[in-house]
Specification:
single chain; 469 residues; 15 helices; xenobiotic transmembrane transporter activity; transport; membrane
């Protein structure tokens, strides 16, 4: 595999494969170490199931914190890819400089803020009297590593954006392997319980961050981190473009929080903690599907943005078709796996038969709509890569709103566990709406870009030929 990809001249098929596969692997490994983290926690002697429920309460808050790295990283990298496509290197350098400053400011602010408000958040988002101690321990330690987590996540987008897909994958692999090893050592050798799992994550994030920062300060990348030349207008553009993926991730956290709260409320003292433990296992499984999807669509956004910046519509269309095909093949395979093998996944977390049976049912229910979910991810991320942030945002909000609505409504009409049907119902409905909108706006948007570039080139030629007086 090439270490550097030529986004302008390499074939689209080879670019999609070379960027999507490492990004997909990186996301999958990232999920695996999160799953292994929960697996170790679930197998802590005597308190494993309760500790797992506590970690499940922390899960959406952790995702919410991480989404700020995506807000800046993805927004900045898409904008930078467009400028590189336009051959504007100085503006690309300025975008990276402003993004690096924003990541530092966000990291420091969020660390302080979440340390102050975490207790109330945990209680409001589903922690019971039994699980609060475990959730609080994990969340306190994890928040201390927020600075490194956000920098690592955000800066990795700028590595991918410049064609270094294998280096980007290595950033994640370093953290993943470190976390898996330290999890085992801290929990089962030093017997530090859920606190050990949290410290393993923090140390892993520090190493990933150090690797990403050192690479972007090095001489191998065309666009390196610099200081100065800051601009509020550029920061606003970065946030505007990154807003859609940020809301997708942030509302994923909100949905999990709402789901946990609904399960606790309608499940009551008898089943509340059991249902949250089940939801934690099911959501861990869903991450095996959604995270590689994010890897495919997010890792290839730079192809679309770069060629859109260069007004090469045919390459953009070809990339979009191949990305969709890759996602459909992946989700179809995972749909079959979800029907046949969920028991093998569930039993790595628990040996309690009631939780095993409930989790197998939950996985089969959650994954009913994953094939049409491909359309949602590909088209929304494609529109974001083209700078159609408002359209992508509206489509994302529709999916999340419908999911929240179904999550709240279904348990009131049926039993608490029927909240699990909210996922496939919203996936299928939103895929239909998103596909319709995409087909209506995609070609028109590309045509408008071509006309804009032609007009700019025409005006530039006139300016050059115009005789000076």
């Amino acid at each position: 595999m090439k270490k550097v990809n030529d986004l302008r001249h390499d074939s689209i098929r080879s670019l999609v494969i070379r960027l999507a596969i490492p990004s997909m692997i990186a996301q999958l490994v990232n999920v695996l170490y999160s799953i292994i983290d929960r697996m170790y926690i679930g197998n802590i002697p005597d308190v494993g199931d309760v500790a797992l429920a506590g970690a499940g309460v922390c899960g959406p808050i952790v995702t919410l914190l991480s989404s700020f790295g995506t807000l800046v990283g993805l927004g900045g990298s898409i904008l930078m890819a467009m400028r590189l496509g336009e051959k504007k290197k100085k503006e690309a350098e300025q975008i990276l400089s402003n993004s690096f400053l924003m990541l530092i400011l966000f990291s420091l602010t969020l660390t302080v803020l979440f340390l102050i408000i975490k207790d109330n958040l945990l209680i409001q988002f589903g922690a019971s009297e039994v699980t609060f101690t475990y959730a609080n321990t994990y969340m306190t330690i994890y928040t201390l590593g927020t600075f490194f987590a956000l920098l690592s996540i955000g800066l990795n987008y700028f590595i991918t954006c410049q064609g270094f897909s294998l280096i980007s994958m290595s950033t994640v692999l370093i953290g993943a392997v470190t976390n898996i090893i330290l999890d085992f050592v801290f929990i089962f050798v030093f017997h530090t319980g859920i606190a050990g799992a949290a410290w393993a994550t923090v140390i892993a994030q520090m190493l990933s961050c150090a690797f990403a920062v050192s690479f972007l300060f090095g001489k191998r990348v065309p666009i390196r981190i610099t200081f100065g030349n800051y601009s509020l207008s550029i920061m606003k553009k970065i946030l505007f473009i990154g807003l859609c993926p940020f809301i997708i991730l942030a509302t994923d956290s909100l949905i999990i929080i709402i789901l946990n709260a609904v399960l606790q409320k309608y499940g009551g003292p008898a089943q509340g903690d059991l249902l949250i433990s089940c939801a934690t296992i099911v959501q861990s499984y869903m991450m095996l599907i959604t995270s590689p999807l994010i890897g495919i669509t997010g890792g290839t956004q730079t192809i679309i943005s770069y060629n859109y910046g260069g007004a090469n519509s045919e390459r953009v269309k070809q990339a979009e078709r191949l990305i969709l095909l890759l996602c459909l093949v992946f989700t179809s395979c995972m749909f079959l796996v979800s029907r046949i093998f969920p028991i093998y996944f569930v039993t790595i977390f628990t040996r309690e038969q009631a939780l095993i049976n409930l989790s197998i049912w939950g996985i089969k229910t959650f994954t009913l709509g994953i094939i049409p979910l491909s359309l949602q991810y590909v088209f929304v991320d494609g529109l974001t890569a083209l700078g159609r942030t408002k359209t992508a945002l509206a489509l994302s909000i529709f999916r999340k709103s419908s999911y929240v609505g179904f999550t709240i409504l279904l348990p009131t009409l049926f039993a608490a566990k029927h909240a699990f049907y909210a996922e496939p119902m919203s996936d299928i409905l939103s895929a239909c709406i998103t596909s319709t909108v995409f087909l209506l706006v995609f070609s028109k948007h590309l045509k408008a870009r071509e006309l804009t570039v032609k007009e700019t080139v025409k005006n530039d030629k006139k300016a050059i030929l115009k005789p000076s007086i």
